[in-house]
Structure formats: C-alpha cells, structure tokens
Amino acid sequence: REIAETNQVMENLKGLPSGTAAQDMDLIFLTGIMESPIVRSLAKAHERLEVMQLTAVGENNMELVTDILESLHSAEGDDVAAAELTRILEEPHFQCLIETHDNVAVKSYEMSPTPGSSRVSLSSSLVPPDAVRMIGIQKRAGEPLGVTFRVEGGAPVIRRILHGSAIARQGLLHVGDVILEVDGHAMGGDPKELQELLKDCSGTVTLKVLPSYREPPAPPQVFLKPHFKYNPATDNLIPCREVGLAFSRGDVLHVVNKEDPNWWQATNLVVGDTGLIPSQFLEEKRKAFVRRDWDSSGMLCGTMTGKKKKKKMMYLTSKNAEFDRYELQTYEEVARMPPFQRKTLVLIGAQGVGRRSLKNRLIVINPLKYGTTVPCAPREEELDGQAYRFVTRAGHGTGHQGQPWDSIHEVVDTRRTCILDVNPQALKVLKTAEFMPFVVFIAAPELDTLRAMHKAVVDAGLTTKLLTENDLKKTVDESARIRRAYSHYFDLTIVNDHLDKAFDQLQEEVEHLCLQPQWVPVSWVF
After folding, report:
1. Model's pTM, two decimal places?
2. What is the dihedral of CA 108, 114, 117, 121, to 10 degrees?
3. Where is the Guanylate kinase-like domain (predicted)?
C-alpha cells in the first residue's frame, strides 16, 4: 500500500502546474526526496512490517543462558564444542544483547542501577573538573596529527583540530586541552618543540593532558563554491601550509568549522581532502588591500611568523568604471538539489564567437525542449548582439520596450528552456530563482585558430561578412575581458575552436542537468 501511495504522490507532483520560483524549488526538492532509493526502501520496509507482526521468542532468555552455563560447567570431559559455547555465552557483549532483548520483550526500558554502576558514578562525582588525564593516542612516524597550538599561561594549548585528521578520528583530544607531558617529557611554552617531538613519535604516544571539557560545536551544514583558485603552498598568511586545503574555481567545499575568523576548516567534496581555507572575510580583505611589509610576531603552527602591515588601497568607484563589474567575489553559498531542468540557458561571449549559431542549432534540433525570446531591433548606437531589449510578442514592433522579461516567461510556461544570448551585465538580473539560469561562457579560441575558422567559413560560402585582422583581435581581447569581469557568474566555459565540437559539449552538459544532482545558489532554495 505504501509503495502505491508513493507512486500516486509522484504522479500528483508531476501534474502540478508551474508556480512561483519558491514553489518550483519546493516541488523539485520534494520530487527528489520521493524518488530517492532510501524513501522507496523505507516504504517497502514499512509495508512489510505492517503485514508481518514481530513477536519476541521469550522474555526469560537470561535465565535460559544461566541454566545452560550451569549444565556446561557440570559436564565432564574436554569437549571442544562445549568449551567454545561456554566462552560465547560468558561474553559480556553477548549477555548484554540477551538482556536487552528481554527488556524489549517485556517493554521494560528503565535502567536498574547495579552496585558496580553506583560505585562508578560515586567515584566520578568526586573527581575535580580540572583533573589531569593520561591519554594514549596512536600515531605513525612522520604522520601529521592535524593539530595546531597556541601558548596560554606558559603552556601549549590545542588551538584547532582539523576535521578528518588522526586526532579527530580518535576523539581523545579537544580544543582548549593543555598538553603537560609527552611520553614523560614535560612541555614548556614552546609549541615548536612540541610539534617536533610529536612528529618523530610512533606507535602509542602517552600524553598528560589538562582537559578543557569544552563540548565540540556541531559541524555547520555550509557548502561553498569558490570563485578563485587556492594553493596553500604559496600562501604566506596560512597558519600551517601542511594542513592547507587546495581547491580550484568551481569546486564544492563543505565548511565544517568556522570558529577562527580567518581560517575555516573544510572538506573538498571533489577530491575528498580536508584542511584549512581562507575565510570569506580574510579573502575579501586580501583582494581589497595590498600587502606592504612584515614584522616578526605572531605564531603559525607552533612557529613565530609575521603580522601583516598593509597599505590601504581600495578601489575608487568614481574613478574606476570597472569596479562594479569586478566585484570582490570569493565564495558563493550553494545547496544540493535533485536533477531538474533549468528555466533559462544563458550564452555569454564576445561578438563573433558563435553564440547565435549554437543557440539556433539547439532550437532547431529540439524545438520541444528549447525556445528563445523576441528581441527588439537594436538602435543605431547599440552593437548587434550586445544590447537586445526583450519585449512581449504583442509589443514587438511597436517601438516600445514593454515588460523586459515577459518573453522569457512565455517560453518557460510551455515547459521549455529559454535560450538567451545577452550582454554580460544582464547576468546580475538573470541569476535569480525567478530565471534559474545555467550560464555558459563561449570563449574565443587563440587568434590563429579564430583566423583559420573565419577563413573556412568564408571559403565555404557560409558568410559574406569579411572580418579584418583588427576585428579578430578585438574578439579575442573582448573575450578575455568578459572572462575576467564576469567569471564568477559562469557555470561552464566552452572554448569554441570547432563549432561542431562546441555544440556537442554544450548539448551534453545541458542534458546532463536533468540526470544528476546540481549545486545551485542557496538563495534559490531558501
């Protein structure tokens, strides 16, 4: 019955008309949950449990185990099987399992205190909260522990524990713990000495620790897509280069710790590694300021490094027309969504890179899946392909701009993806939950390749427009400028050095969206 009801819910969801942007995302999310194999398995399990009523075999199995053990102990001889059975039945874990079964069978879930447990709780209550503990950790020689330290009160204190490191997996040390001794060696106030000593240790390492008793915070569910490439090996500000996390533009990072305002702990979901990344505050500060000089104070990974002195050199918007386009983009918070069809496919690129050819070919091949808008004729001062003004079909040809985005909604309402080739500045308006765009940058190839492609088109008689060498150079330069200014909007970059190859790649990527989960801006979901 549950499976049938699940299928009915799926049919009802597919039959719902498209509504507002928020409702559309809710439907996509709910559809993904209902299609999940986990939900299907739970429905099947629930269906089976309703049909098959489970009952306990008995309520006195511990008595039965006791009787069996008495019989085995009284038996004579060296029976190997009897000895093995005795060992199994006397195992504490096995007896706890049987006892739990009996408690569940009689629905007795209250814990009855035993003399032993009373002594433990009594002795525990007498232990002072600042008691010193002896901890044994396991370590291989040369293996980094994933721990950084600071000096507090003349003693090394754990400053951070990297998510996924050897220490984090063992769960014996916590942030704020004071390390007093390592294998009997008293620790002073030099974290570098402690790092070197721990680096050379192997096997079981005994630490004398003054615990902090701080509860570790729950890891935040924050996922970020970086708009820059990062290599900790070349970063002079990172506390410890060995624990830095490298990533590329467009990777997805799961931030697991944001306690440090400058350095976050994150996992790169593309490669699976965990380490430190610069926080958004630090990276924006680094991009907005210019490093000037250094001194010799501060502590990095147990060593002393320089504090930064920087010359403030902010962009002046009144004197820099590029500032609005060259925004300080560092990270974009994203959320994982099930497969769905994007409302719009936005093709960005310089004039002459083939955007319109790619758009028209997609629409001709699959007119039931793709559509486009009706642009106004450009004014004399507007450049072809760079200043379209979208209007409703009713308003087309009247000379009025009309409502700018009505044509997009007309295409989307027919459950087709609307393909747009627009000025890059339009991305600020388009990249919202209302339009849910997949933005593809069509990049110009090298100048020699572009020259050869244009010659081939002219020789084949496909165009009568002859481009000069200066025109081709302008296309390459404009393509590079658009990439620099707007790359944080791009979901995909395709270098059009061969039109057929570029079309195949574009079509494959767009169709892939309907088959695999997608990472979208979190503002589209919440």
Report:
1. 0.58
2. 90
3. 342-511
pLDDT of the chain along its 526 residues, tens only? 656 677 777 777 666 666 544 467 777 777 777 777 777 788 777 777 666 666 777 778 888 888 888 888 877 667 888 888 888 888 888 888 888 888 877 776 555 544 444 333 333 333 354 567 787 887 777 777 778 888 887 788 888 887 777 777 777 788 888 888 888 778 777 777 777 777 777 778 888 888 876 665 666 689 999 999 999 999 999 988 888 999 999 999 999 888 889 999 999 998 888 899 999 999 988 887 644 333 333 333 433 344 444 444 343 333 333 334 345 678 999 999 988 899 999 999 998 898 999 999 999 999 999 999 876 545 444 444 444 444 433 334 333 333 357 889 999 999 999 999 999 999 988 999 999 999 999 999 999 999 998 888 888 877 778 888 999 999 999 999 999 999 999 999 999 999 999 999 999 999 999 888 999 999 888 7
Is residue 134 within 8 A of residue 208, CB to CB? The reply is: yes
437: Cβ–Cβ under 8 A, 6 or more apart, which residues? 342, 343, 344, 345, 346, 420, 427, 430, 431
C-alpha 124/C-alpha 60 separation (Å) is 33
> In which element (H, E) is residue 444 found?
none
Q: At residue 47, what is the residue type?
A: E
CA atoms of 297 and 319, how far apart (whole Å):
37
CB–CB of 463/354 below 8 Å? no
Strand partners, 138: 204
E strand segments, 395-512: 417-421, 437-443, 492-495
Tell me the Ramachandran region of residue 476: left when phi exceeds 0, alpha when psi lies from -120 to 50, beta otherwise.
alpha
